[in-house]
Design a protein that fits this description.
- The complex is a heterodimer of chains A (363) and B (126).
- In chain A, strands 10-11-12-9-3-13 form a six-stranded mixed sheet. A six-stranded antiparallel beta barrel of chain A has the order 14-17-16-15-18-19. Chain A has a five-stranded antiparallel sheet with strand order 5-6-7-4-8.
- The mean pLDDT of chain A is 97.
- With 363 residues, chain A is of the alpha+beta class.
- Chain A contains nine helices and 21 strands.
- Chain B has one domain: RNA polymerase II/Efflux pump adaptor protein, barrel-sandwich hybrid domain (OB fold (Dihydrolipoamide Acetyltransferase, E2P)).
- Chain B contains four helices and nine strands, in the order E-E-E-H-E-E-E-E-E-H-H-E-H.
- In chain B, strands 1-2-3-9-8-5 form a six-stranded antiparallel sheet. A three-stranded antiparallel sheet of chain B has the order 4-6-7.
- Classes of the chains: A alpha+beta (363), B alpha+beta (126).
- Chains A and B meet through loops of A and strand 4 of B.
Chain lengths: 363, 126
């Protein structure tokens, strides 16, 4: 049974082409995904991301639970509203999911997990809690918030448009540094995103989502589908769960070493496996030099051995094809590799996996 | 659905027009471009290449996916439309103007196996 967000009818009224995404009926585009991509880079656009799941983790032992549950260190979260990107690992060091955890107040956190993995993640979190409670007291409530919706507004004009529509939110949200969130009444406004542009991700009661969506539309904010969401995140060099990493891939081999805290003495699920296994591959960007389009699962040949593309597409901002790829250790930025596309060997250059930031090419 | 009555079609979503000089022009249908979305790359066959009916002749790629274009009949490529390899979006704008390649049929009888507009409309509406 396909699930629908509270904005499903709103997408259909906008003539969206709908697709199944991780069990959710979501808009792929509203006409042209290229136009939508450019709108976010040059102006702003909005995304229904209500399929993602906010999970409140609260209780006297919430911090201790998260310290052990996820690979990044929630001890870094000192200021209220601060957000942290992290992977949640299995015992073998594979990625169960990637997530953002927000520190609301002492004993109160909000974790945002992916749509397609939500049920699996919740089961995993509850199983770990039950397991640890058998050994010692651990007072934590794990509450998925399916009563909430999420709208992301992204692009150079995103903040101004949000303030125009929610003037009461301006005072609290304007001073937010990147990767923070603040509560304004019913609205949880975060300066996070998945596009490489400025903007907000707004979590709000599902009953208010259509009103905000319509107000943003009336203010000239364009609706953006999952198609452009994917090319925007790829240009920004951001990983997609299930494609760039999964339960069989270590975060160290998926470009996520920066999110894993191995230095602190604390133990967390998967730590022993990461320390024993170490890094086996590099995760870098590719820029296709020939004509064509890089795609996931294409094979790469380098002087150091074989690699594989994990995400690839046409980059609308750069007007050439780019990819994220797993490559052998020893391949260096600036190296040339070949990618097998159908029966041809095409040339690609290895680059840092951040292609576009704030509307500008980084390569 | 935009399916001009004067063209022939294949079940793999190519359109075919028989020219007065006996060559045939091939493109992808409006329905096909709509399914693919914004096109960003077109790989055309080389002039002179011998094509076999129902085998890969060209590739069109949208942002989302790559799709093979099949030869509707057997024959040799006589001309290619480099305008669409330079600007693949021409196919999104008008799939019936943005032809891909022309070919000289090996056997004119093969044209009889192609679908007319009504038959193509019926199979692509399924």
């Amino acid at each position: 049974m396909t699930q629908k967000t509270v904005l499903n009818e709103a997408h259909r009224r906008l003539s969206a082409k709908m697709v199944d995404f991780g069990g959710w009926d979501m808009p792929l585009h509203y006409g042209s995904q290229l136009d939508e991509h450019h709108a976010v880079r040059s102006d702003c656009g909005m995304f229904d991301v209500s399929h993602m799941c906010a999970v409140d983790v609260a209780g006297p032992d919430a911090k201790a639970f998260l310290l052990r549950l996820i690979a990044n260190n929630v001890d870094k979260l000192k200021l209220p509203g601060k957000a942290l990107y992290s992977a949640m690992l299995n015992e073998a060091g594979g990625v169960v999911d990637d997530l953002i955890v927000y520190f609301i107040a002492d004993g109160q956190y909000r974790v945002v997990i992916n749509a397609g993995t939500a049920e699996k993640d919740l089961a995993w979190m509850r199983a770990r809690l039950a397991e640890w409670q058998r050994v010692a007291a651990c007072q934590v409530a794990i509450v998925p918030r399916r009563d909430l919706a999420m709208i992301a507004v992204q692009g150079p004009q995103a903040r101004a448009k949000v303030w125009q529509v929610l003037p009461q939110a301006r005072a609290a949200s304007e001073p937010l540094k990147p990767f923070f969130a603040v509560n304004v009444g019913d609205y949880f406004i975060a300066s996070t995103g998945y596009t490489g542009e400025e903007g907000y991700e707004i979590t709000l009661p599902a009953s208010k989502a259509e009103g905000l969506w319509q107000a943003l539309l009336d203010a000239g904010v364009k609706p953006i589908g999952l198609g452009a969401r994917d090319t925007l995140r790829l240009e920004a060099g951001m990983n997609l769960y299930g494609q760039d990493m999964n339960e069989d891939v270590s975060p160290l081999d998926a470009g996520l070493a920066w999110t894993v805290d191995l230095t602190a003495p604390r133990d967390f699920v998967g730590k022993a496996a990461l320390l024993a296994g170490g890094q086996k591959s590099q995760f870098l960007g590719l820029l296709l030099q020939d004509r064509g389009v890089l795609r996931a699962h294409q094979k790469i040949s380098s002087a150091q051995g074989a690699g594989e593309i994990t995400s690839g597409s046409y980059a609308p901002t750069l007007q050439q094809s780019i990819a994220l790829a797993r490559l052998p250790l020893g391949v260096a930025i600036g190296d040339t590799v070949t990618v097998e596309i159908r029966d041809k060997q095409l040339v690609a250059r290895v680059v840092k996996p951040c292609f576009v930031r704030n509307g500008k090419a980084m390569i | 659905m935009n399916v001009p009555a004067n063209l022939k079609y294949t079940k793999s979503h190519e359109w075919v027009r028989v020219e007065t000089d006996g060559t045939v022009t091939v493109g992808i249908t409006d329905h096909a471009q709509e399914l693919l979305g914004d096109l960003v790359f077109v790989d055309l066959p080389e002039i002179g290449k011998k094509l076999v009916a129902e085998q890969e002749a060209a590739v069109v790629e949208s942002v989302k996916a790559a799709s093979d274009v099949y030869a509707p009949i057997g024959g040799n490529v006589t001309e290619i439309n480099t305008a669409v390899s330079d600007k693949p979006e021409l196919i999104n704008q008008d799939a019936y103007a943005a032809w891909l390649f022309r070919m000289k049929p090996a056997a004119i009888g093969e044209l009889a196996s192609l679908l007319d507009a009504a038959a193509y409309t019926a199979i692509s509406a399924e």
